[in-house]
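Appendix C reproduces, verbatim, an entry submitted by the partner laboratory led by Prof. M.T., so that reviewers can inspect both the input and the predicted structure.
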Amino acid sequence: MNAPAPAPTEPLAFVDAVARRSKVDVGEVTAILTRHGVVATPSPPPARHLRVKAIAFDGTKSIQGATKDFKFEWDVDDGGLYGIVSADNFAGKTTLIQVVLWALRGTPKKLADTSKAWIRNVDVSFLADRRTIRVVFACDEAGVRGQVCVGAGEEQQAHGFDDEEQFKRVMQEVMLEALGLEPIPTSRQLRDGRTIPYEDGWAAYTGAFLADADSDAIIGEHVGGTDLTQRLLQVFIGLPWARTLFQARARLNVLTSDAQQRKRKLSVLGGKSLTEVEDELQKVQQEIADEGLRDAAIAQLLEAQRIYDDLAVRVRAGRDEANAANDAAQEAQGWRINAERALLALEEENAAAAFFGRLSPKCCPRCAASIPKSRVEQESRDRSCSVCKEVAPEPDANAVDAEVRLAKQRVADVKALEADAKRFATKLAATQHTLRAQFLEAGKVLQALSVRGTAADLRNLEFRRERLEGMLEVARAVLNADLSDTDELAVLTGAKEEAEQRIAATAAAVLARANAEVTRIVQRLGMTDVESVSIKRNANVALRKGGADATFGGLSPGEQLRLRIATVVALVRSAAEHQTGRHPGLLLIDSPKREEVADSNLADMLEELKALAKETPGLQMFVALSDKASVFGDLSPSRVLVAGPGEKLW
């Protein structure tokens, strides 16, 4: 008889472990994890280094109406420490840091509006792993446009962009690929309560490259209300299975939110079971099927509706006819007024002709010269005017009388037409009034039938049937979706729990090593009273300092800055020595003196940073501050950019 096979002492493959947890077939587990983008990542790839090679930009300053062109260039193609120092504030130190971040991120981080308005062209080169990445762009009021060139020679690839959104997308694609990083999966809750999958991309990673006064997190920009800081920390520390955990947790949050949304929809059942609602719907349908009730209600309602609709049509037609009759009466009135005016004008013309014909002028009305008697006598013989000698026609009395009679007849005709039009309009108005009264009464009858008796009963039953059918449709859709999601929820839950367990198994050793390194470095940076630093997976920081417990938030701004610097340096050193950290090694430190770092402490800190930079392969640091150049000690002048009193860096 064969002895039973010994139980495996090594961990199962991730898919098999999830299948065991979820009690789902391995094939189905594989399909579900693939569908939701959950990938086993037991060993994160080693860090790829990033450093700045060259910084150049130009433009035109405008101060108090005076303009001045400027051009800045700086070759920094090496690792280690670089200093940016000025005797005065506002000499352009922060702008240098922000221009590097602008080129690196594809969008400005905290570049001052004035500086951004002055800059017209930017040309910054980076070395990502062993690949040169040159970012060249022009900028003006219309936006940015340029290209990102990857590699050199015949193998160089150029990626163009015409606006800031394209710029950000290009930098995300290029930098994540060049540094072997991936977007960090998470989820986000919308205002309507739904949860959607989301990924923090390249811009989130770049938050770990800057150390200044504006961050309240041990790494990255802000703690805020999200878990971005702890996700960045776990990625940069290089915890195995961290990405798998982020993927499983994000998809599980989305699926759980969808299930909760569906369960909220079940509230439409009002606490009843699905069977109870189905029985109630069946009873309502049976009542509606009653022929006598249905026929009586339908007959009453249809007849009332028919009368109402018929009167509505007649009221609209009567209104149109009444309006047309009123228009016709108005038009007839206008004709009568015009005829009366014509008659009056004719009578006045005849009267004037008779009046002036009886006049006997004695002199010229213009020059007052006397009219000879002979002209007066001739006028009486042949009707030639004694003034102007023109022959005046003899008026035809019969024609004048006929014209007057015709005008009077026309007046009489239009008066009769006007009277007929007004009578017709009055009649139609009365008819319309009667129709409208009947229409309103029919509406009252229809309303009364709708709210009483069999009609109301039928309508209420129809409403109840529609409501119950809607409730059942929603409930069945929810139940069907829940049944289909059961395996997926079990698998994603199993994947999340398995990844958490595997992280926990390795995190203690990785974090202990990182914490010891951070403690050593922060002591070298001047915090000699720090006994221990403990950074948790959730990015919380606990310290033993001066014999007492302390937290990151309880440190002074200067101490927080030094702890952030120590953390980044420790991550880079861990990547070099243990192949676990994934921080690319670029660190930009802006204005450490502003963080309450005393001059003596600052000099000591810079000396230690210089030593750490030499000791740590792949580390490149830029420190910008207001001080004398001597603060950087014996650092090579080629590595220190200096602006004396009254001078600007660019």
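The longest helix spans residues 453-524. Additional entries are available on request from the coordinating office.
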